[in-house]
Ribulose-phosphate 3-epimerase
Amino acid sequence: MSFDRSLKIAPSILSADFANFGQEIQAVEAQGADWIHVDVMDGHFVPNITFGPDTCKAIRPHIKTVMDVHLMIAPADPYIEAFAASGADYITVHVEAGAHTHRTLQAIRGAGAKAGIALNPGTPASAVASLLDMVDLICVMTVNPGFGGQKFIHSCVEKVAELRSMIGDRPIHIEIDGGVTPETAPLVRAAGADVLVAGSAVFKGGSVADPAPYGENIRAIKAACKE
Ligand code: DX5
Ligand code: ZN
């Protein structure tokens, strides 16, 4: 079977109700989410703090699709085992987060998870050129990481196209994270992305009590990409 490059929407629970992750995940999956994106922040690599591996473990049983853990932490190495043990399907680390990314990616795969590498908006595509055989996913940040609801940085779109051609036939997903909306999604989809993370654009207007807007928002992003 060929590699799945179909469009996938990965709602970020950074925009969900933090007091109610389990029900939020169930609601957004019932409304059509393809993956669940989990943003881990340390207050050091990024200027915000969210949660750690224990929270990931607690929410894991609520996720039926794919648990996509985005580590915005430095160092990452001491915590890889714990995040893998929490049940993450994908663990993504930042190429800017340490001097030994190659070793970190080996550790992720060694722990039984799929390995992702993320690039900040200021980091060129060439930073991951030597890592292509080590990764299952490349995450292109289209905002500076740390907060939801920021404005999409248009100059990152060219980098997506560059990475898509670098990847060739390799089985690597291209994920976009930050400022994805029905307006910006078609740009990155056309450039070669297949996983679109969306926080505020998916969770806006809805709630666990009234989840229909989650589905409308997901469908609006897909429709804008004509999918
Ligand atoms: C940003 C996070 C994103 C964030 C996206 O640091 O990595 O996953 O939740 O949020 P939106 O879609 O609102 O830009
Ligand atoms: Zn993220």
Remarks:
- The mean pLDDT is 98.
- The first strand starts at residue 8 and ends at 11.
- The helical segments are 21-30, 53-59, 80-85, 101-110, 157-167, 185-191, 200-203, 212-224.
- Residues 12, 14-15, 37, 39, 70, 143, 145-150, 177-180, 197-201 surround D-xylitol-5-phosphate (ligand 1) (CB under 6 Å).
